[in-house]
Protein 1
Amino acid sequence: MRIKIISSYKKLLEMAKDPIILESVFNLVHWDMETMMPPRGIELRSQQLALIKQVEHKIRTNPEIGKLLDKLLKHPDYDDLNQIQKRNVFLIKKEYDEQVMLPEELVKETARQEAITVDVWKKAKAAKDYSIYEPELGKLFELKKKAAEILMDVKKTSTPYDALIDIFEPKMPAKTITKIFNGLKDGLITLIEKCRNSSKQPDVSVLKRKVPIQFQSQVSNAIAKFVDYDTESEKAGGRIDETEHPFTTGYFDDVRITTHYHKDNFTSALFSTLHEAGHAIYGQNINHKFMYQPVGEGCSYGFHESQSRFVENILGRSRDFWVYFFPVLKQLTGNVFSDVDLDTFIKAINNVKPSKIRIEADEVTYSLHVIIRFNIEQDLFAGKVSVAELPEVWNQSYKEYLGVDIEHDSEGVMQDTHWASGYFGYFPSYAVGNIYSGQIVNEMEKELPGWRTKISKGNFKEIKQWMIKNVQVHGKLYDPSELIKKIAGKEINFEPFLNYLNQKYSELYDF
Ligand code: ZN
C-alpha cells in the first residue's frame, strides 16, 4: 500500500513540474521584453507570451491531474505522506481546481491583452495622456473581472476582489486588510505630523547631486555584494539590468533584478537595487529540495515584500548600514560626496515628505500610497468607480491622504505598471510586507541582539542566515498566516512596524 501512494504522489509531482518550468520560460521571455526587445517586437511578443500561458494552462488542467488527486486524497494511506508532500498535494489541488474553471480562451486573451496594455501604458505615460491607455486598461479590467468572478466561486471568497487578493496574499480578505490598514494609517498620519512639525528638518540638497551612471552601476554592484547577491562570480545566479520600472524575476539559480539609473537622483537606483536584491535572495534561498515543486516559491507576495523592504529600508536606510557603506559610496563615486558628513547623508535619505510617486516614497509615507491603491481597487471591483474615473479618484485620494496635487496622470494613476500588467489585488501586499517586516525584525532582535552592530562592521552574513532559517527556507510550506505565527508567535500585527518607525524617526527628527 505504502509504495502505491508514494508512486501516485511522485507521478503527480512529475506532472506539476512542467508548468513550473514553463512559467520560468514565460518569466524569461517577459524579462527580455522589458530589457532587450526592440520596439517593433511587441506584436510577436504578445503572441509568444499568450501561447506560453495557453500551453501552461493546458498542462495545469490535464484531467489526469484531477484523477491522480482524487486517487491520492481517497487513499487509505494518505496520512502516511509527510508535511511537505501533503502541502504539495494541497497546492496542486488548489491550482488545479482554479485553473479548470478558467476557460482557456480567457487565459490566452488575458495574457495577450496584458502585453498590449503594458506597451500602451508605456506610450501613454511618456505622452502624459491617460486617454491613450484607458481603452486597453478597460479591456484588461473586464477580462480580470471575469476571471475574478469565476475564481470567487472556487476560492469561496465573498467578493471578486478578495479572489484576486488571494492570488497574492492567500486567505487575507479585504475586510481583514481594511482593519489592519486603518490602524496603520492613523499611526502613520500622527508620525508624519510629528516629522513635519519638527524644527530639525534634513538638508536634502545632497540627494540632487549628479552621479555619473557608470559610478551608480558600480554602487549597485557593491550593494549586491554586501547582501550576498552574487552577480559577478563564476557561480553567479543573478544579474542586474536596467528597466523603466525595476523588478525581480527568475527561479532558484537564475534570479535577475533590474534597476533604473537617474543621473540627478542617484538614490533611486540605490534603493531599487537594495529592494530587488532583497527579493532575489529570498528566491534563491528557498530550500533547494523544493525546486520544481509547488512549495518551492515564496510564501506570499506580502512575505516577499517583507524581505525586499527589510533590505531596502530596515537595513538600507539605517545608520548602521551607512556607517559601513558611506565610505564605500564615497570611494566609488569620485569626489561627488567628499564634503558630505555621515549624519547629513543619513538624515537626507530618511527625509519624510508626502510625495506623488510610490516607489520614491520614504518608509513612513509609503504605506499610505498603498492604502490609496487598495481603496481604489476595492471600489473599482465593487463597481463604485469606473476605469474612466480612475484619474479623478486617484488625484482626490492623493490630496486627501498625502496633501499633494497631481499635475498629470503620468505622475498619478499611470505611475505604476501593476494594473497594466493585470496585477489587480497585488498592491496590499506592499504594506502587508512592511507590517510583516516589523514583526520579523522584532523576533530577530531577540535572537540576534547585536545585529545592528554587525551591519555597521559590514557583516550581513548572520542576519542573512537568520532570515533564511526563519523565513526564506520554508518557501510555500505554510500559509502566510501560519508562517507569521511560526516566526512571531502572533498573527499579523502592525504595532511592531509602527514602533520601529516611531523609534527611528523620533531620533532623526528629535521629538
Ligand atoms: Zn518589491
Note: The beta strands are 240-242, 248-251, 254-259.
Protein 2
Amino acid sequence: MKNIVILISGRGSNMEALIRARDAGELPVNIAAVISNRPDAEGLATAQAAGIATWVMNHKAFPDRESFDAALAECIDDFAPDLVVLAGFMRILTEEFVRHYEGRLLNIHPSLLPSFPGLHTHQQALDEGVRLHGCTVHFVTPALDHGPVILQAAVPVLDGDDEATLAARVLAQEHRIYPQAVRWFAEGRLRLEGGKIRLDAPLDGTGALISPVLR
Ligand code: GRF
C-alpha cells in the first residue's frame, strides 16, 4: 500500500475527506503523517483523533524559505512517502523542494486553473462575472498554482452568490475530486511523464467532472 504524507495549514477539511475515503475503504493508502506549518491548525486535532501521527514545522522558526523547506523535506522524508498531498498548505514552496518531489506532489486549488491562481479565488470569480467556477487537482510545478491538471470539477455561479456560498459549493467538489485523484495515484493509474499526465482511469478523457448541480 502506498504511503502518503498530508500537509495542512488550517481547517483541514480536504485532509478529512481523504481520511473519510480511507476509512470507507475507497482510498487504499497509509496516511503516514499530517504535517502543519501552523501550530494552531484546526486539522491537527482531527488527524490526531483519527490516530494519525502529526507534526508541526513552524515556518516562523526559520530564517528564510530555503531553510524551512529543507527542514520540511527532511521531516517529510522520514515518513518515506510515495506521495505528498498539499491540502490547504498555505506556503509558497521553493523550486528545490518542488523538484525533489517531482511527480509525487499534489495540490488542490479552489478555481478552474489556469483561471484565478493565488488567493481569494471565489471573490476573483465573482468579480469577473464567470458562470462556471470550480476546483483543480494538479501535480505541483515550481510556478505557483500551476502544473499538469489531473482532475477538475465545475460548479455554476448562481445569482446572489457571495464568497461564502460559492466557496461552500466549490469545497463540496474539492472533497469529491481530491480523494479520487489520490486514489488513482495509489492504484498506480496516474503518473507524470515528461511533464504530462498519464491517466489510466475510467474517465471520458476530458479529466473533468461536472457538478451534479448542473444536471
Ligand atoms: C481549500 O479551498 C483548498 O482548495 C485551498 O485552501 C482551502 C483549504 O481548506 N488550497 P481545508 O483546510 O482543506 O479545509
Note: The chain has six helices and ten strands.
Protein 3
Amino acid sequence: MLTPEITKLLNDQVNAEYFASNVYLQMSAWCEINGLEGSAKFFRAHSLEEREHMDKIFDYMTECGQAVSIEEIPKPPAEYGTLMDVIKGAYEHELKVTAMIKNIADTAFSTKDYTTFNFIEWFIAEQHEEEVLFGKILDKAKVLGFDGQPGQQLHIMDNYLRFAEGNASK
Ligand code: OFO
C-alpha cells in the first residue's frame, strides 16, 4: 500500500517521464528539419527510453493497487538556435529529473517505504548513466571546439550523436 505522499510523487513522475519523452521527440524533430539525421536518431531513441521509464513507474503503481492519473502534458520547448542549445537543454533536463527521483528516494526512505525505495534505486542508477551520457557529449563538444555553428564540427558532432549511447559507455 502506497502512502498518499508517495502516490503523488510517483504519479508526478509518470507524467514527468511522459513529458521527457515529448521533450526528446521534439528535439528529434528539430534535428530532422535542420539536416542533423544522426542527432535526430539519437533523440528519437532517447524519447522511446523515456516512454519506457514512464511504463515502469506506471506498472509499479498498478502492481501496488494504485490508479495512475495521466495529466495534461505541457508542450515541450520547440525553438532551438543550434544543436549545442539542444544538447545543453537535454543535460539540464536530466538534472531536473535526477532531483525529482532523489526526492522520491528520500521520501520513501524517511517514511520506511523500503519497497518503493528499492524500486526507485533503478532510476537513481539510470539518472547517473544519463548524466554521464550527456556530460560526455558536452566533453566531446569541448574537445572539438564545437559551439553549434554550421561547419565540419557540426557534421562530426552529428555523427558522434548517431552512436552516442555506445560511444558514451566506452
Ligand atoms: Fe532521462 O531518464 Fe527518465 O526521465
Note: The chain has one domain: 4-69+81-162.
Protein 4
Amino acid sequence: MNIVILSRNSNLYSTQRLVEEGRSRNHHVEVIDPLKCDIIIEKERPTIFYKDRLLDYVDAIIPRIGASITFYGCAVVRQFEMMGVFTICTSDSITRSRDKLRSLQRLSKAGIGMPKTVFTNYSRDVDEVIERVGGTPVIIKLLEGTQGLGVVLAENQNAAESVLEAFNGLQARVIVQEFIKEAKGADIRALIVDGQVVGAMKRQGKDGEFRSNLHRGGTAEIMKLNHDELQLAMKASRVLKLPVCGVDMLQSARGPLLLEVNSTPGLEGIEGATGRNIARSIITYIERNAISK
Ligand code: ADP
Ligand code: MG
C-alpha cells in the first residue's frame, strides 16, 4: 500500500515510528510536508502536487497536522478525501477537535462528563462567571492552546480578574473552567485506535505544577482504565468522529471528566509508558480500511 504521512518534520518520534512500522509491514511510506503541497481544483478532477510531483497513487494518509498549520493542513487532507484516499482522521474532525469550546459543546450534548465550563464574551462581569463554575480557584484557558501553554490557574478573584482582563486585552478567546483539585496535578491519556483503547497512561505534573503535560515536565506511567474511563474515552472518540485520537480525562470525585480530544496524539510518551506498539496498531487499522489502488 502507498501511505503518506502528512507531517512538517520527518525527524519527530511519532513520524519516524509510523514510517518504521509501515515499512516493516511492506508498505511504501513517505513523509510529505503539507505546506509544500499544491491543491488543484477543477471540474471532477481534484489533484495534489507535491513540489512538482503528482500525488495520484496514494492509498491512505496519516495527517499529523500541527496546531499552527490547521487551516492549510486541513485543506490538503480535504483534497485527499475528495480524491477518495483513506484518511485516519477527516479534515472536518481535525478542525472540530482543535477548538476546545466547539468540542466540549458537542461532547456535553452527547452526555459526556466534563468540568463545568463557561464561555463568555462579556468580560466585565467576572464575579458572575466565576460564580457559575462554583467559585475560585478557576482554570482559564485559551480555546486553541496546546501543550499546557495558555492554561492558567487563578487562585482567587483578583487573579482571575487580571488574567481575564489580560486575555481580553489581547482579544484572545478563553473558557473559564471549574478547577478539579482532586486530580492533584495528574490526568489520564487514553490512546484510541479504531475506536478502541490501545493504551493508557497517567501523567503527573512536576512538583507544584497543576498541568500534567509532558511538555511541561510531567512524567507518565502505564495505567489500567476502569469501566467508566474506558467508556468515556471510546464515546468521546465516537462523538468527535476521530477513530484514532488521544483522549484526556481528569479523575474527579464524580468520576472521570473529559478534558480534550487530540487528533494528532504524540506516540513517544504513550509507547514509552505502556511498552505497546501503537504505531503498528495505526498501520494495521489502515490495512483493514484502505483500498489499495
Ligand atoms: P492543553 O491543550 O494545553 O494540553 P488542557 O486543557 O489539556 O490544555 O490542560 C492542560 C493540563 O492542565 C491538563 O492536562 C491538566 O493536567 C490541567 N488541567 C486542565 N484543565 C483543568 C481543570 N479544569 N482542573 C484541573 N486541572 C486541569
Ligand atoms: Mg492537554
Note: The chain has a mean pLDDT of 95.
